[in-house]
């Protein structure tokens, strides 16, 4: 949480004495005297102008730009007849002042100044909101989980050995009374007995 700090205080104001020691009179050098004085000042909203003059001999009127040039005193913005007169500078921009006594303005008792806005603004009292921490998204669970089934190693099949020799085949009998002998290796010996000899032997045994 960020706490806000509020600074309290008043803005400094400057009191400008018009013409300084010369005061508000008919200047010897004409209007240039007040023009030179104004060029050496910095006027800011909130400042004040002080016109020092003798009552009954001078006055001070704030007029518009249109009335300032021809020194027209009718319908002034303000008119102060008692000195010293203190006038507040409440708005920025040009301000115009003259003396309404006969011919005083034409001789040079006139002043124009330019007022600037406030040079220093009070600090902001709006609390600062800390930035939100970045949002971290959880890892996605929609993917296919890895397989946990163990893979059995494949054992190579033992080589098949071919016998170099054929196994013995059982004896078989044929219709021509041939008695085969067991197969021995690469060759077999067949004994053929005639039917007559076989019958003779059989008769002898029976006798």
TrEMBL record:
Signal peptide: none annotated. Residues 117-129, 138-152, 162-175 have a biased composition (Low complexity). One of its GO terms (molecular function) is electron transfer activity. Keywords: Disulfide bond, Glycoprotein, Membrane, Transmembrane, Transmembrane helix. Residues 117-181 are annotated as: Disordered. It comes from the Eukaryota. GO terms for cellular component: plasma membrane. InterPro entries: Cupredoxin, Phytocyanin-like, Phytocyanin_dom. Residues 14-117 form the Phytocyanin domain. It holds the Pfam family Cu_bind_like. The chain crosses the membrane at residues 185-205. This is Phytocyanin domain-containing protein. It comes from Ambrosia artemisiifolia.
